[in-house]
TrEMBL record, chains A, B:
Belongs to the NAD(P)-dependent epimerase/dehydratase family. Coiled coil: none annotated. Pathway: Bacterial outer membrane biogenesis; LPS O-antigen biosynthesis. Transmembrane segments: none annotated. This is NAD-dependent epimerase/dehydratase family protein. Residues 9-249 form the NAD-dependent epimerase/dehydratase domain. PANTHER family: DTDP-D-GLUCOSE 4,6-DEHYDRATASE-RELATED (PTHR43000). InterPro entries: Epimerase_deHydtase (IPR001509), NAD(P)-bd_dom_sf (IPR036291). It comes from Ideonella margarita. Pfam families: Epimerase (PF01370).
Amino acid sequence: MTDYRDKRVLITGGIGFIGSSLARALVAQGARVTLVDSLIPTYGGNLQNIADIRDRVTVNVCDVRDRFAIEYLLRDQDFLFNLAGQTSHMDSMSDPKTDLDINAAAQLSILEACRTVNPGIRIVFASTRQIYGKPDYLPVDEKHPIRPVDVNGINKLAGEWYHLLYAKVYGIRACVLRLTNTYGPGMRVKDARQTFLGIWIRQLIEGQPIKVFGDGTQLRDFNYVDDCVDAMLIAGVAPQANGQVYNLGSDEVVNLKDLAQMMVELVPGRSFEIVPFPPERKAIDIGDYYSDFSLARTELGWSPKIDLQEGLRRSLAYYREHGQHYWDAQP
Amino acid sequence: MTDYRDKRVLITGGIGFIGSSLARALVAQGARVTLVDSLIPTYGGNLQNIADIRDRVTVNVCDVRDRFAIEYLLRDQDFLFNLAGQTSHMDSMSDPKTDLDINAAAQLSILEACRTVNPGIRIVFASTRQIYGKPDYLPVDEKHPIRPVDVNGINKLAGEWYHLLYAKVYGIRACVLRLTNTYGPGMRVKDARQTFLGIWIRQLIEGQPIKVFGDGTQLRDFNYVDDCVDAMLIAGVAPQANGQVYNLGSDEVVNLKDLAQMMVELVPGRSFEIVPFPPERKAIDIGDYYSDFSLARTELGWSPKIDLQEGLRRSLAYYREHGQHYWDAQP
């Protein structure tokens, strides 16, 4: 795919986990990439994520809440991959206003900026399967009722709908991808703020037992980050994606106990243990979840290529080599 | 009903159309009522609405965005009827940030205040049928997909969901009523910012022809304000309402042309005309809409009592007598 050669591309959250992988793919295609990231220490930005492409991208450190900076940066861009967000469900409950400012208010000001200074831009917005809440049925397709279980889910949904509304009312070419659990090199492993898989990887490497919450029977699907990036690249240039919402997902559905087993088998001498849910996690647990991503498959021609074992192997290899930049690092 | 005798009740938007009618009903029951209103001139607050109860309520002029004032006012209240909102769909598109601040951010700070200083309060939140968007089927029940057609709808929905989330996660006793077109004494008649019925009433009284947009075949349901107030009073004390969403509505479904005909027949010598949609209204028009309110009927024992002809007659009588305080008045 060379759709992005010489194209100007802005990535919010660009030094984060998925944003940096996307940047790497875009640089490889010859795009002119600008990364926006707030580098808030508890969020996903980590300069190690872009160590290998640092001299081939433009880095602009600022927050998406910085309205005028963002408006300036959006001028003349061909594409916006809008990935910046507050992703911690716990933080959204303890500090709901910050979550609202980043996940809803800043999204609205980004769209207003596009409408006024760059209405020809194409936007891919990263949303989350969290907005479906506890599923009524499985797999969960895009028509499943929306039922956010935390402040984060409500605000992400508002952010998503602003994009769809600006597509519908103003003709801004925006689409929404609802990501499932994404993992791979660059994910936050210091804590469970992005994905529990980060913690598990770290525990594996550090020789601690993996902790599985609940009874281990919860079903999940996972996307390796390169597959998620592929979906974004396809969606960015697909005219049929304008104004649409697509689930990402995987046919490889696994329960957490089997996942833990698969992971400990990758590192000799490791083990996992089943522990009760911490109460604050139990309150927002959604039980089983996996996506129906047949719309993305049919309309975008996307499906994930990297299976779980291969993805986990690559992730482990990455953190074995670069872990010291992630365990306790500042961004 | 005397459930509210000596109870402390806060009404946001309390000098507005529905808030003031609710205040009147509560005062009649012996409640100790405090009205919060921003008195923003383009919004619904009008002191004429409370002229008859001015000495039996406490008026506190402030904006729901005034976080600390609201937190102070919420202390020691038994009930919150949370009616303040930016209601103009046009304004939400031209000034989306203000709409977000009032309809979403302020709602979140109100709930945070309740959680921290008054978790025992009972809350009724006034939402809107607008969040359903263009209906997939009629009548529209609470399970109908959510599909906001403007920034206002997205933000109202976020505000609504914060209430349901705080009910679920923190046990705050909050419920949501999704109002349909509400009309009656106290509605804004200066312009169409609250309801086109306000403009129609004014045109009738001033001797101008009523203007029906589109082809006049759009179906709607309407609630006279006293019926809407009844629903709120019931929901406020119904334990089964906690964490629930209820549509309001009416069995009397009418198309706009027949409604115009009914109205011109109430005032000798008047007429109506069918005119094309202004383009900015057409973009967000939702076609036919009427509610299935059987959940409110079954669970709350509520149904509307005042038919359209009687409600319109009372409204006309009110504005014939008090219209001069509404046509061009400051709040």
